[in-house]
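Data deposition worksheet. Section B asks for the primary sequence of the deposited chain exactly as it was used as input, without tags or linkers unless they were present during the calculation. Section C holds the resulting structure in token form. Section D is free text for depositor observations; keep each observation to a single sentence. Incomplete worksheets are returned to the depositor.
Section A, Depositor: J.P.
Section B:
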Amino acid sequence: MQSAIEVASIWILPLVIASILIAGAFKRVPLYNTFVDGAKGGFGTSIRLIPHIVAMMVAVSVFRASGAMDILVGWLHPVAIWLHIPSQVVPMALLRPISNAGSLALLTDLFRQPHTGPDSFVGLLASTMQASSDTTLYILTVYFGSVGIERFRYALAVGLLSDFASVVGSVVAVWLLHPGLFS
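Section C:
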């Protein structure tokens, strides 16, 4: 069974690309010209997104450097205890919706600490949180900014609610899959 999965994972991307090329050729689509036109459009989109990305990166840096992250972690400590979330993981749960690189750096730091390696409850929980959510604010900034949507209040609320659900779901998943580590 494992070898079938390995073979499928190796061949799935080349097969998808080949099927797109074959379908395009079958429909007589000028493949190279279509690719070049798409690349031109992508370059323009990238230029339009730069101000949005820079603004978000500055906001994340100010949030962390100002100490607001530490204050928020302190306020959320009782809730984290109630949800059985170790205090070491709370900063990552807060930073994950904002910055993938920042949350990945925190995850790496957790792995380097004694007693919180990748196989510990903290390591498994942090890894599950990292994998089960996405950077909501980055997605809203990039995707909504690329098409010119300026009002995204409800999308932000739903995104942050789903991030909270992924944190709670991560605790439940790690508890169900590794009950001996739950503390």
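Section D:
Residues 48-181 form one domain.
The CA atoms of residues 117 and 139 lie 30 Å apart.
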